[in-house]
Amino acid sequence: MAGALRRFPLHLNKVLQNGHLAVKKKTRMIYNLAFLAFCAGLLLFLWNAPPETTIKLPNDEIHAGFHHMKKKDAEAFCVKCHNPKGTAPLPKDHPPKYRCLFCHKVR
Ligand code: HEC
Ligand code: HEC
Questions:
Q1: Are 64 and 58 in contact, with CB atoms under 8 Å apart?
Q2: How does pLDDT run across 11-38, given as a tens digit for each residue?
Q3: Which residue's C-alpha comes closest to atom 2 of ligand 2?
Q4: What is the DSSP string of 23-79?
Q5: Residue 59: pLDDT over 90
Q6: In the chain, domain spans
Q7: Is 61 in the pocket of ligand 1 (CB under 6 A)?
Q8: Does residue 94 have its Cβ closer than 6 Å to ligand 2?
Q9: Contacts for 104 with CB less than 8 Å, ≥ 6 apart
């Protein structure tokens, strides 16, 4: 193959090489465009995400003290009442409950 190329007239060799470069540039541009489209799509997706709907930490007497605590300190108390035998058990279908205040936002 290399031998055959070498036997081509010099200017034809140049043409072949340039053609190859042009194709490479084109594929790179397509990849860049695809990447841009992907980013735009992702941005739109995040933009349209529904507002957070999880119940917030109640603003009542029971929970008043927790609104001004560090989240991690406050969370240590939650399960004292919110456990299967406590005063306010979690619903059966409650999601994994690690770090309460990540989901139940303090207002
Ligand atoms: C002293 C017991 C006690 C502790 C400690 C406690 N809770 Fe509660 N929690 C309750 C009771 C009782 C209710 C139900 C009545 C109410 O809404 O206040 C409740 C209700 C809730 C609700 C549901 C409110 C609703 O609208 O249905 C959430 C969410 C909640 N608690 C989160 C927490 C989190 C997070 C913590 C820890 C920072 C915590 N609780 C600590 C007793 C407690
Ligand atoms: C991964 C997110 C997440 C975490 C972490 C979490 N919860 Fe929940 N919790 C929910 C969702 C979702 C519900 C269903 C009700 C809703 O849509 O808000 C719920 C419901 C509740 C309810 C019942 C509210 C009602 O009236 O039915 C209580 C009480 C509660 N969570 C307390 C807690 C406590 C206490 C912790 C920590 C031990 C905790 N949650 C951790 C997401 C979470």
A1: no
A2: 666 666 666 777 788 899 999 999 999 9
A3: 103
A4: HHHHHHHHHHHHHHHHHHHHHHHHHTPPPP-SPPPP-SHHHHGGGGS-HHHHHHHHH
A5: yes
A6: 2-47, 61-103
A7: no
A8: yes
A9: 54, 55, 56, 57
